[in-house]
Amino acid sequence: MNEKMANPAPLGLLGFGITTILLNFIHNVRLSPVDGVILGMGIFYGGIAQIIAGVLEYKKGNTFGTVAFTSYGLFWLSFVALNWLGTTTVAEAGVWPFSYSSVRPGYNTPWLVSQEAFMAYFLMWGIFTFAMFFGTLKTNRALQFVFISLAILFLLLTIKSAVLAYFSPVSTDIVNLFTRIIGVEGVICGASAVYLAIAEVLNETHGKTVLPTCPVS
Prior knowledge:
Layout: H1 9-29, H2 36-59, H3 63-85, H4 88-92, H5 115-133, H6 141-166, H7 172-206
Helix pairs in contact: 1-2, 1-3, 1-7, 2-3, 5-6, 6-7
C-alpha cells in the first residue's frame, strides 16, 4: 500500500527563515549581541528542524533538498558553537578548555574565533549558496529569491569580517550602518523563506494557488 508522504520543505524553510529573521533583527538591525534566543533557535529550529527536513527529503529522493536542508541545519549548529564557545566572554569564565592566558596562565583557548576566520567561514558558505542557487533555476522564482538573497547576505558578512580583520580601526558609525544594512537584507532573506513555506502549506492544503510562488515554466 502506497502512503502519501508529507512535504518536509516548509519545515526546513520555516526553521531557516524564522531563525534568520530573529538573528538579523536582534543582532544586526538593533545592534544587540547574540543572546540566548538566537542560540536556542539556532540549535533547535534552525539546526535540528532543518536536519530532520533534510533526512525526510532524502527519503523522498530529493537530492537538492537533502543537501540544502542538512547543510544549513549544520550551519546553524556551527554558528551557535562559534558564537557560544568562540567568544571572549566564555573564555573569561575560566572554564577549561575555553579559558585563555589571562585566566589560566600559559594556556590559550583554541576556541576563540578571529575576524579572519569568520571571513573565510562566511565566504565558503556564500560560495556554496551561490552554487546551490543554480539548482533552483528549474523550480520557482520564490526559491530562487531565497537562495540569491542568502548568497548576497553571506557576501556582505564576508566583507564586514574582512574590513574588521584588515582595516581596523574602522569608524564605529560606518560599521554600525553597514551592519544595519546587512540586518535588513537578512530579514528580507528570512522573510522570503517564511513566505515560501507558508505558500507551500496553504497551496497544498487548499489544492489551489493561494500564495503564488511563480513556478518556472
